[in-house]
Amino acid sequence: MSTVVRLETDQLLRSVDELADLLTDTVNGGASVGFLAPLDRAAAVDWWRGRADALAEGGLAVWAAYTRGRIIGTVSLAFPDKPNSSHRAEVVKLMVHREGRGKGLGRSLLATAERAAAEAGVTLLNLDTETDSPAESLYRSAGWTRAGVIPDYARTPDGVLRPTTIFYKYVVAAEVSEPAASR
């Protein structure tokens, strides 16, 4: 059983080593989350440290999933800084360690982000993911709507250009519930 916790800035900074381990495992395991493999651990630590200012300023919210005291997954919400977009947010960096996949943790993290967004008054979420990836199946099954595909959008960790699928979902606080596996 995992526990999902919203990280404050000091918690994120104390957890950068574990978060870097998760990021390197995700990238080196083939998931396209913006990095090329092999991802250097020091670069992953620096990347997570670089999120601290956005977290402190409220432009980013980060959750970590703990299993047996260890971070095994994460998800973030990025909030736009423009007045005309205060109703929306982007789901970013949903990652589950290879050891924790297939157990509903990705779905639980996604539901956590959806619920928090709705509670914050956000009504529209968006995200992108590699087309035909396991993550794409997760988003479809969680009620996200496919907006379209952009060809050759990003490189996979091994450097191959791949299309990305853009998804969106409307959320309302009363309609977003916790998945049964997390209750």
UniProtKB/TrEMBL annotation:
Acyltransferase as UniProt keyword: yes
CDD domains from the UniProt entry: NAT_SF
One MF annotation (Gene Ontology) recorded for this entry: acyltransferase activity, transferring groups other than amino-acyl groups
InterPro entries with a match to the protein in the record: Acyl_CoA_acyltransferase, Bact_Acetyltransf, GNAT_dom
All copies of domain N-acetyltransferase, residue ranges: 3-166
SUPFAM superfamilies the record matches: Acyl-CoA N-acyltransferases (Nat)
Sorted UniProt keywords: Acyltransferase, Transferase
Name this polypeptide is given: GNAT family N-acetyltransferase
Source organism (scientific name): Streptomyces liliifuscus
